[in-house]
UniProtKB/TrEMBL annotation:
Matches recorded under NCBIfam families: PRK08199.1
Gene3D superfamilies cross-referenced by the UniProt entry: 3.40.50.970, TPP-binding domain
Statement: the UniProt record of this protein carries the keyword ATP-binding: no
PANTHER family: ACETOLACTATE SYNTHASE LARGE SUBUNIT (PTHR18968:SF120), THIAMINE PYROPHOSPHATE ENZYMES (PTHR18968)
Keywords: Thiamine pyrophosphate
Domain Thiamine pyrophosphate enzyme TPP-binding: 399-548
Domain Thiamine pyrophosphate enzyme N-terminal TPP-binding: 20-132
SUPFAM superfamilies: DHS-like NAD/FAD-binding domain, Thiamin diphosphate-binding fold (THDP-binding)
Alphabetized Pfam families for the sequence: TPP_enzyme_C, TPP_enzyme_M, TPP_enzyme_N
Protein name (Swiss-Prot/TrEMBL): Acetolactate synthase
Amino acid sequence: MSAQTLEVQTDAQNTANKSAGHIIVDTLVAHGVERTYVIPGESYLEVLDGLHQSPIETIVCRHEGGAAYMAEADGKMHQRPGIAMVTRGPGAANAHVGLHTAWQDSTPMVLFVGLIPFAHRDREAFQEFDIKGWFDTGAKRVMVLDHPERASEIVAEAMFAAMSGRPGPVVVGLPEDIIREMVDPALHPVIPVATGGMTVTDWKQLKAALEESTKPLFVLGGNDWTQEGTTALTSWLEEHHLPAAVEWRCEGTIPFSSPSYVGPIGYGRPKPTYDLLEETDLLVFVGTVPGDVITDGFLVRQDWTKKNFLVTIDPSLRGRSGPVSHQIVSKPDVFVRDLVMMDLADKPEWKSFTDRMRGEQEKFAVLPSATPTDGQARMDTMMANLVAGLPHDAMITLGAGEHTNWAHRYFPTEVYAAMISARNGSMGYSVPSAIAASLNFPGRRVVTIAGDGEFLMNGQELATAAQYGATPLVIVMDNQEYGTIRTHQERHYPDRVSGTQLKNPDFALMAQAFGGFGVRVEKDSDVPAALQAALEAIDEKGQFALIHLIVEQRVKAY
C-alpha cells in the first residue's frame, strides 16, 4: 500500500470519528436533554465545544451552586435527569450542595465534572481531587470516563442510574485528555427503566385494607410523577370521597382546590394534619415514605399495630420510619394506572372523614385581607394580592426558611410540579430554581419567595435570568435576620440573640443593576401598586422582577 493511499484512508477515518467529548453531547441529545447548566472550565472544553452547535441550550451560570440547583430543579420538572457541568476541584466542591438536595429529594440529576488529564493523576496536580472519595456517599453512582470508546455507554449508564429505582444524583468525571480522543461515533441505546407495578397479591391486600378502613388517608410525595398520573389519581380519590395529604413541599401532586386535598404534612403543618397520622386507620404512602419530617422526628405513627402501605420503587425503603404493613414496588404513575381500575363500594364514613378534614384545610387556607394596613409592609397583604390574580398553572419555587410558610398555606398549587422546592432545607435554592422553572415553562407565571439571608446565597443568578430571558417574580421577605434559626434560638436560648442578625443592601437596586425590575416596599399601603408594577414589567417588558419587602422581625405565617 502506498503512503498516499494510507494517508487518504487515515483522513477518511478521522472524518468518520468524533471526539469522546462530542459523543457525550450527542448521547445527551438522544436522551431528550434540552438544556444544561454550566460553569465553564478548561478541564472539559471538548464537551463545551460539542455543545456549540447542538440543540441543547447551554445556560451559563454564575456559581456552581446555582448551576447545580438549576439542574436539580430541572430534574424535578421532567421524567429525565437535570444536567449540570462544572470543573474540577473548587468547581466540584461548590456544586456539592445541589447533589445533597438531589439525594434527599430523590431527584434525577447528572453532574459532569471535568478532571485533570489521566496522565497527571495521583501527582497532586493543579485542582486534583478524589472524585469518588468526595461523592460516593452522596450520589447513586460515581463514574469516571477512563476509556474514550465508552463515552456514550457511560452517559447512558449515568442517565439510567439517575432514573432507575429511587431517583437521585449521579456524578461523571471527565478527564481532560480522554474526552479529546477520537473514537467511533456510534451511540449507546437508551437503557429502559423498570417501573414496577401492582401484583395480584398487592391488589388484593390493598383492596381488602381499604374496604376494612373507615378513615383511610393517602399521602403523596416525591418527584417521580407526571401530570397524567396525578390527574387520574385525583379523579379516583374524588370519585370515592377519599382524602389525600401531601408531603412537605410536594404541593400540586393533588390540586389545591380538590375536595380530596386535606393539606400538607411537614414542617410548619397545621395541627389537623399533624393529628391525622395518628387518627387514620390506614395510611397509603405513594411516591414517598414516612420519614422524619412527616413523622415529626420519628415520633408520630411509630406503633407497629398501625396499618401502613408504602408504594415506592425503592425496595430498600430508604428513609422510612415506623410500621410497614405491605410494600408495593412501583413508580407512582404505574401504581395509579392499576389503582384506578379498582372499583370500591363507597362508605359514608369516608365522605364524612374527608369532608371534615377538607373543611379544616379550607379554613387554614383562607386568605388574609388584601386591604393594606397603615403600618409596615406585611407578607399577609402581599400574598392576598398576589394569589387573587394568579393563573391556574402558576408555579412557586422556594428555598428554606420561615418565609416559605406563606406559600405552603396560601399559594394555589393546581397542577403537578407547581411547587419546586428543596426538601433538604437547603438555602439559596429560590432564585436558581425559579430561573430553571421560567426557562422550562416560559408561558407560565413563576413566583419565588426568598428570605433576605437565603437570597444573597445565590441572588447573583439574576444575571443568568437576564441573559437568557427568564422572567420570574422574586419576592424577598426581608426581616433582617436568619429567621428560622432565630426561632430555634428563642426556644432554646431565650433573650440571647447571637449570630442571626443581618444588615442588608437594597435588593431592588441590585435587581435593577442586573437588568430587571426592582422595587423596595416598606409601607403596607404600597404593596398592591408595587406588585402590579412588577407584574407589568414581566408581562409587558419581558423582564424578571423583584420586590424587596421590608417586614418586621419575628413574624410568622402560623
